[in-house]
Prior knowledge:
The protein is an alpha+beta fold. The chain has 7 helices and 16 strands. The strands form 4 sheets. Strands 1-2-3-14-6-16-5-4 form an 8-stranded mixed beta sheet, covered by helices on one side. α1 (about 30-40) links the parallel β2 and β3.
Amino acid sequence: MNERLTITALGPHIGAQIDNLELSRPLNDAQFEQLWHALIRHQVLFLREQPLTPVQQRVLAARFGDLHIHPVYPHAEDVEEIIVLDTHNGNPPDNDNWHTDVTFIATPPAGAILAAKQVPEQGGDTLWASGIAAFEALSPPLRRLLSGLQAEHSFTKSFPEHKHRDTPEQHARWQQAAVNHPPLLHPVVRTHPVSGKQALFVNEGFTTRIVDLAPKESEALLSFLFAHINKPEFQVRWRWRANDVAIWDNRVTQHYANADYLPTRRIMHRATILGDKPFYRAD
Length: 283
């Protein structure tokens, strides 16, 4: 059996398509090592025609590490590690903003695996941006200013209370999640624990302020960084088909789920892989 993966880069900074791999079967060590190294290099990987059950997706994700259980999103039946993102007119999307997943915890996810179950005929693309490319494109004086600064990340910025009052049970889950996840600090520039590369680690979904700066300075600088990260030069865009799978390095990327497909329904399953505490280490 040929165990060599076909890896096709989709851009100079981020994104690659993987072929010659069947994710529904347990990966052997050679396959997993190639996949892992490709993920570190390309930051987000895409695979076509990969029908996965929630249990198979959980097994695949667990090869990368322990899995996160989301405090708000619903999960697949009997598989609490797989969250279900089901969007339609009665359940509008909330991922149509640039964000890095779950940065409201002390050890944000190292990665995630997203499986497309039902997709619209048109629209619904997802975009990923490289925090490494965005940081490296800044001028040296600005890179020096940002390095070592701390920013606050808040659960309630991306999950405001008014969106979680449909039922008493939903509201109670939100209230408990808010108590369990008070705002916390992460470095503005994060050092990748494997590659050693520096990446911007602020995102519009969860980052509220840079604590070392005056409020107006923080607002101005974050506004600039959020816009800077959005530049197409740092991005890859994926047009989904049913049974596509995306695997990304959540430590150094952001993503945006385009919500241009409503009222068509879109169903995705996500496994989230726990990471370690972000840090900044000078070069």
